[in-house]
Specification:
10 helices, globular, ABC transporter involved in vitamin B12 uptake, BtuC, 270 residues, mainly alpha, 80% helix
Amino acid sequence: MFELLLWPFLICIVLVGIHVYFGLHVIKRGIIFVDLSLAQVAALGSTLAFLMGFELDSSVAYVFSLAFALFGAVIFAFTRDIEGKIPQEAIIGIAYAVSAAAAIMAVSHSPEGAEHIKYLLIGSILTVTPIIVLKTFIVYTLVGAFHLIYFKKFAALTFGSDETPKHRRLWDFLFYASFGVVVTSSVKICGVLLVFIFLVVPSVFAALTTNGITKHLILGWIFGLIGSVMGLLLSFWIDTPPGATIVCTFGALLLLFGGVRMLVKPQNAI
């Protein structure tokens, strides 16, 4: 069991590490479904590559997926200013629905269409290899370093301050573009649903229990690692798809925490 779950567990650490950070921004910006939408847009790109005869883990499929994700980043960066007229979540939701429908249409005549859609939703985290873990770690480290270097600019856009950077749309695009790079890699590994869960659930837990960026990240990472370990072990014991099992485990943990929190009714956050 240890050898079977070692690499899936390590990739979960990598995924949780970067997604909790982006989740901090997403929760604060109030664009909860941007990850789900970008993931679906990226999945549409890989679907088109798949229909052209390329393997989903090929470089061509990755380029297609990344190109579509970057296109989504452009849309989301340049629609932020419409917030006064309609919520940006409306645009994000439309992008998700259209991308999902387009993917279904694209594979409707393919004999492997149903299996492909299932793969896009829940991925195949159990089959990750050491080289996939290493490549993903390198990509996410580079994205993390980029955000660390320019943290003040991204924080100003997310949390608001008097130091809002010049060329705001450019920095918004760079935020969504780097987010798209992460999502493109993540969808190939664990599917759309788990990508969304890694982003949102640990950050929701952290937001409910603490204030402050550092504490938010630490608690989110702890929650994400606990949920990942429990989900992987549960999937092994009851023989269910690990991606779907981790998603349900995260949901159950958050529900349990919410129930306990309502009963205890703490007076102060951590």
